[in-house]
Every structure is written in C-alpha cells, then in structure tokens.
Amino acid sequence: QASIHAGIPVSKPAHIINQVCGSGLRSVISGYQSIKLQENKIIVAGGQENMSRAPHAIFYREDKKLDENKLVDTMINDGLIDSFNNYHMGITAENVAEKYKISRDEQDLFALNSQEKTQKATNENRFKNELIKLKINTDDKNFLFEKDEHPRNNLNLEDLKKLNTVFKENGTVTAGNSSGINDGAAATILMSREEAELRGIEPLAKVVSWATCGVEPSLMGLGPIKAVNLALEKAEWKREDIDLFEINEAFAAQS
C-alpha cells in the first residue's frame, strides 16, 4: 500500500520485513544487499509504526461453545512481550538496570538529557529538511501534522522524579525514562555510487558496515551494545572514530 500510494509503479514489487524495533534498519540492510547482488539498482527502504491503531484480538478457534476468552492487545502481545519469560519488555529493562546497577537517578538524568537534546535540535531546525508535513482530513476536522508530538519540552528532573515505576514494584523504570506509544514512518532511497553519479545525485551517506546479534531474551536491551561493537569490528573502526551515535533509546537503562 505504501509503495502504490507513493506513486511507485505497480510493476515494482514490495514486501514487509518484521524484526520488531529493528525492522526499518533491517529493510535498509536488505536493500543494500539487493543492490550489492545487482538484483536492483534503486531501492526505497524504511519503516513505519502505528501503535495507536494496533487492534485487539480474541482467540476464537476453540471447540468450546462457551468460553471466557478475553480481548488481547496486539500491540503488547505481539511485539512487547518476552515470550520466553512471559513478561513485558519493560521488565527486561529492569533486569538490565539491576544487573549493571543503573540507578533511577541515572536513568532520569539520561532521559532528561535526551529530551533536552531533542528540544535543542528542534529549536535549531536540525530536522526541518527531513520532516514531511502531513495533512489529515476528516468529516469534521482538518489536521496538519508538522512536528513530532512525543518530545516533552521544558521537562525538568523534578517532573521525572514524581513518576511511579511501571513494570515492577520498587523498580526504576518509569514512563519518563522509557520510550512511548507512537505513530510514525521514515524512508530512504538507496542506490550504488555509480547509479547516483549517472543521475547527478549527491549521496547523503554511505553504508560502511552493519551487524546484528542475539542476546538472552531476559536482557533484551543489551543487543545494540554487541551489535555496535560487531559493526565497528567489521568496518575496522574504533569507537573513537565515530563522531555521532544515533541510538534507538528504548529505555534509559539500556541506552
């Protein structure tokens, strides 16, 4: 649907990749590999999240005529539950914080710093050329979305300290130092340098290395640490060689 609505010819195939939070970057890697294998010359790759409209479902394939099955929130059940331990990914953040002795104060300070950097970048229009305004028309209202609604401007540490823990009694993970429920999408165009030069396009970036790895499900948040180090190793780079890290900040404890 996204491909056709974007005006891409119906003759061009499109497919969906699901690697939960890593789906968008996985699609970029898939596109990179396709170009390297000379299967395609140009790829549009990206990801989308629509958490606010995730449906509820009910198990209705039982032989029972009378059942007490309840509606299941697919946003939680399908994406945010560690199926091996049967608990929310927020508990895995608590596990990481406990294992590495990351205090509530440290997490709140990290979250505050992240929000302040976001506010500064927004005020300086750092992302102005990357954001696309979106008009939504309904029967009774018209909306114009032109900025990210999730960041909290003018947040302070006292506000964060007032929040209760969400996943564990006497825990450290709160709504303030966790990622939230959001909708959004992003995409990028990939092609070889030769193709870009042929079309007179100046590349914005180059894919140098990528990596993915597995970790214990109960410590889900440690995955990016090992993946980053592996990607650096493949590129024969050191962490000191990197000017800027962009991290998926699922939880302050993990980030």
TrEMBL record:
Coiled coil: none annotated. Keywords: Acyltransferase, Transferase. Residues 1-194 form the Thiolase N-terminal domain. GO terms for molecular function: acetyl-CoA C-acyltransferase activity. The keyword Transferase applies. Pfam families: Thiolase_C, Thiolase_N. InterPro entries: Thiolase, Thiolase-like, Thiolase_acyl_enz_int_AS, Thiolase_C, Thiolase_N. Residues 202-254 form the Thiolase C-terminal domain. Belongs to the thiolase-like superfamily. Thiolase family. NCBIfam families: AcCoA-C-Actrans. This is Acetyl-CoA acetyl transferase.
